[in-house]
Write a structure and sequence with these properties.
Order of helices and strands: HHHHHHHHHHHHH
Helix content: over 70%
Number of strands: 0
Number of domains: 2
Structural class: mainly alpha
Protein name: Low temperature requirement protein A
Largest sheet: none
Pfam families: LtrA
Radius of gyration: 21 Å
Shape: globular
Distance between the termini: 31 Å
Transmembrane segments: 7-26, 38-59, 71-90, 156-172, 193-210, 216-236, 265-286, 298-320, 327-347, 353-372
Keywords: Membrane, Transmembrane, Transmembrane helix
Number of helices: 13
């Protein structure tokens, strides 16, 4: 039976870098971002997210609290801090720093995984084949470091190819020694803490924008926006996170690790990206309402409403991956995605506070529906 595990102090300290990263990325979507800005946002968010989830899984598997592990994780923290500083200019003059920061994170990952090639991860497991950490960690590190010698835009093509290759390794037929079980509670908690980080950036953005535009109109939008974030938090941790832990604990055998991989590593990228985008849009909505603008800039509407649509879409995919019936998922996913898309279409006729109010109404309705479904199921089971 799995023993209880929680995030350690080192992991919580490590996450502080991502507080800054979320702020940098949300700021890049402030104002009136265009299609290129959104594409760059997703492209530059993926590598640090991928580094975080890989390091989180390593911490999940290797529980030792030695000085060696601490130094490796602190080195990873520095590497990701470099990426955070560089992320807003990573397609320009800071692309070298961004690439070298990511290369550093892969070297750390190699250091974390290498001991498992000489001793099993769990008693009774086989050794991890040496080619796996070399191919998965060292080769990308060398590639990212070497990419600084290649001019743009080919440098960015190399980054994309290397990331795709890393993901591809995870789908190669399982070899002896790879983990077949994870500490589910710890993993769900770590992902939940990351979600808290991006929700936190949304709250910080609301407060900062209201401080800039200290008006009744700006305060009203900030208040309604806070209700939206509170409802999202409530529904995520009462239903999304709880359901994930239940399903992952129930998964058995070779199904468990791929299911955890798909839900945490892949689909939660879009969950968190949606919230970060919403943070940029909400901050702009507060400022534009405070300045008396008649409607919200289109880019801000896309960040806010599009971020919410992406958030709901990712959760719908998670539910389907868990085996939920498509018709039941559609009952909340269709309005969850459709209402934000409708808001984008008619935003030119809505004031900033109306945009935020309609989206908040959808989120609150989603929460109330989830609570109603849960209550009905409990009554049915006890009847």
């Amino acid at each position: 039976m799995e023993h209880s595990r929680h995030a350690g102090w080192l992991e919580l300290f490590f996450d502080l870098v991502f507080v800054a990263l979320a702020g940098q990325l949300a700021h890049s979507l402030h104002g009136d971002p265009g299609p290129a800005d959104f594409a760059v946002f997703l492209a530059l968010y993926l590598p640090p997210w991928w580094a975080w989830i890989n390091l989180t899984v390593a911490a999940n598997l290797f529980e030792d609290d030695t000085a060696r592990r601490r130094l490796l994780m602190l080195t990873a923290m520095l590497s990701l801090a470099v990426m955070t500083v560089a992320v807003t200019e990573a397609t320009g003059e800071r692309s070298t720093a961004y690439a070298l920061g990511y290369a550093g994170s892969r070297i750390v990952l190699l250091g974390l995984w290498w001991p498992s090639t000489t001793r099993p991860i769990h008693p009774g497991d086989a050794l991890v084949p040496r080619w796996r950490p070399l191919v998965y960690c060292l080769v990308p590190a060398v590639g990212w470091a070497a990419s600084v010698l290649v001019p743009a835009p080919w440098r960015f093509v190399i980054w994309g190819v290397l990331l795709a290759a890393e993901v591809g390794v995870l789908f190669v037929e399982r070899s002896a020694g790879l983990p077949r079980r994870l500490h589910v509670g710890h993993l769900v908690e770590r992902v939940g803490l990351f979600v808290i980080i991006v929700f936190g950036e949304s709250v910080v953005g609301l407060i900062g924008s209201l401080d800039t535009e200290w008006t009744a109109a700006g305060g009203w939008v900030a208040l309604v926006g806070f209700v939206m974030l509170a409802a999202l938090w409530w529904s995520y941790f009462d239903f999304g996170s709880a359901a994930a832990e239940t399903v992952l604990r129930a998964a058995a055998g070779d199904r468990a690790v791929p299911l955890a991989r798909d839900v945490t590593a892949f689909l939660h990228f879009f969950v968190t990206a949606g919230v970060v985008a919403m943070a940029g849009g909400l901050a702009t909505a507060v400022e534009e309402a405070g300045q008396g603008h008649g409607h919200l800039a289109r880019g801000a509407v896309v960040a806010l409403a599009g971020g919410l649509a992406l958030y709901h879409t990712a959760h719908a995919c998670i539910a389907l991956r868990f085996g939920r019936r498509p018709l039941l998922v559609a009952t909340w996913a269709v309005p969850g995605v459709g209402v934000p898309l409708l808001v984008i279409g008619v935003a030119g006729h809505l004031a900033p506070w109306q945009v935020v109010a309609v989206l908040t109404a959808e989120v609150v309705a989603h929460l109330l529906y989830a609570r109603w479904v849960t209550t009905r199921r409990l009554r049915t089971r006890t009847a």
